[in-house]
Amino acid sequence: MNLAVTLSTQSWRGLVRLAALSALCLGIQACALNAGKDSAEPSAAALTPVTSAKAIETATVRDPNASFIDVKARHAFLESGKKDAKLLAALPKEFDCTTAKTTDPEPGPMVIPPRYAVGNHGDLHPDYERIVGSYRDFEDQTATLAGLYVYTYKPVYAKCLLDLIVKWADAGALLNYDVTKRGQVWFQTEWSIGTAAQAYSLVMTEPTLDAAKKARALDWFSRVSKKQISTPGEANGTCCNNHSYWRGLQATMIGVITKDDELFRWGLGRYVQGINEISEDGSLPLEMARHEQAMHYQNYALEPLTMIAEIASRQGIDLYAYQSNGRDFHTAVRFTAALVKDESIIAKYASEKQDKRAFALGRGDMGWGEFYQARFKKDPLGLLDQPIFYPRNGGAITLLVYTPK
User: Fold this and answer.
1) What is the pTM of this model?
2) Domain span at 66
3) How far from 37 is each of 77, 79, 323, 403, CA to CA, in Å?
4) The domain that contains 347 carries what CATH number?
5) DSSP letter assigned to residue 390
């Protein structure tokens, strides 16, 4: 029996985290032996700073073939650039994706219980993790295949990814729901379609991909995105909290790959909205209202904001430059870093002991920090010692953006 046929969900997730033990042991040697051209650094000179919200009203998609990273440059670096133990550990394990089973979309209307049993914090709904499993598997699989393509440049991984996306597209996945009855499906849609779109953006320039399949995928991306953003969300809540930014992420990415300027601008607008929400001390008020999850959601909000800015940068737009009342993205980062060092700061907003699982080394929640470090040469929270894989922020993040010193 072909081992790839029986790949479990855990195996899919493990593929991007596994590296040969010998590679880890030889990490120090690799640093010396693999001195080569570093990956392309973002060029600040090539970006137009956004100094007002009005500036994004005329923003356009300059290059629909640009992902959130320079795929060609990154592949070249992974082939010949310097590698340390961390990057070696991030290299994915190849497998036969043509025989590996991929996740089928759920039939019928989307039915997902609320994440929390009561309200917006506390114990999880007892059925939540089980029911969202297929969506997370889809996210893991798309991100895994995209990372393998960037690493190897083998067309088969791009083809497998496109086939998986088209399977979901042809089934009308992520479209059959009523947000007034099932709010959690609205959230799941923003995550899953955003993940798939980011993965697609990494392989879309592969010349051997079937043009008709690409067209079906792009049509699906557009339809899912536009339905998802058609709901404004609740006032003083999902209209403007981290969910607004996750909606903005999927819209920004899909706006690029479908060359839809209106959708692209809508996504950029969620970044501006997020910066506008920042308090004087750097806190995000709607995330501070999450009780024992306040720290987690402050950090969680930075994830989609980072990706919107990174996607925009590939279109010549510097969103990181945007300020509101003298506050910018870095203001929120500094507050988050302060919380990590001194949890007592949160007492001003939440009396509960904070759930800090998201801040463990190697957690996907820290993925935004890899992008931040790559651009600004600083580990924002001091938590980037291990490789990170997080589908919703691009997948194999360390593989895609980390450059050894």
Assistant:
1) 0.91
2) 3-401
3) 6, 10, 35, 11
4) 1.50.10.100
5) B
